[in-house]
Amino acid sequence: MPDHATGTWPIALAVAVALVGYLCAARRPWPRWRTISFTAGALAVVVALPFPAHTFTAHMAQHLVVGMAGPLLLVLGRPVTLALRVCRGRRALVRVLRSWPVAVLVFPPVAAVLDVGGLWLLYRTPLIAQAHQPWVQAHVFAAGLLFTAAICQVEPVRHRHGLVLRGATLVLAGAAHGILAKTLYADGFRAGAQVLYYGGDAVEIALALVICLQWYRRQSRRRARATSVDTPVTAALPAPRTLEASTVAQSK
């Protein structure tokens, strides 16, 4: 069995390289909070991945950072949008983003099955004995990143799915995640199950807040457009003249 830290260093190195590239690209005008979010997410993943999780509770804490909290912070940093702004191969990247495989992978129900369904397959089958393997951590990170991107949908992709579909997918995925934690609790993994349950709820609430904020912004833009359409028409109309004003005008 390979050492955990040795097996996960390629993933941690790839995330660290992505962070360096992001910081170099973010020197141009770019929202600071996005840079802070991506940096925090990358550092969290780089630190948590090589951590020797010898107990199931430590493994669940590692899963929470690598597969949920870290991906959320990374996605909110909008690295793809930043790459489109600075990358010379922009057309090739756009073709990849608009390809049908990407469209299938970021379809929220598909991303949820790959993420939460993968966790059920891992923890409720004999595969649980492989939970500390580096390939498991790679899957958890990739599936969590994909699910978060599909729910938040802050990057330019081919098909942008509605708030109702993403919200319903998040609710169902959260329910499946919670049930999984409860079954682990019933099997005796109590501390680890509690980390999975309450920590997962916290990240899922954050995802729900992202969706709510998107809904609020959409409604604000609609009201702004409605106001901008009505205002010129109102401004173009002549001011109503009173009976006294008309009489004075005629006398002149």
Automatic annotation (TrEMBL):
Annotated signal sequence range: none
Residues passing through the membrane, by range: 6-24, 36-53, 65-87, 99-123, 135-152, 164-185, 197-216
UniProt subcellular location: Cell membrane
Alphabetically ordered keywords of this record: Cell membrane, Membrane, Transmembrane, Transmembrane helix
InterPro entries named in the record: Caa3_assmbl_CtaG-rel
Chief localisation class: membrane
Keyword Ribosomal protein carried by entry: no
Topological category with respect to the lipid bilayer: Multi-pass membrane protein
Species the sequence originates in: Amycolatopsis tucumanensis
Protein name per its UniProtKB record: Cytochrome c oxidase assembly protein
Domain of life (superkingdom): Bacteria
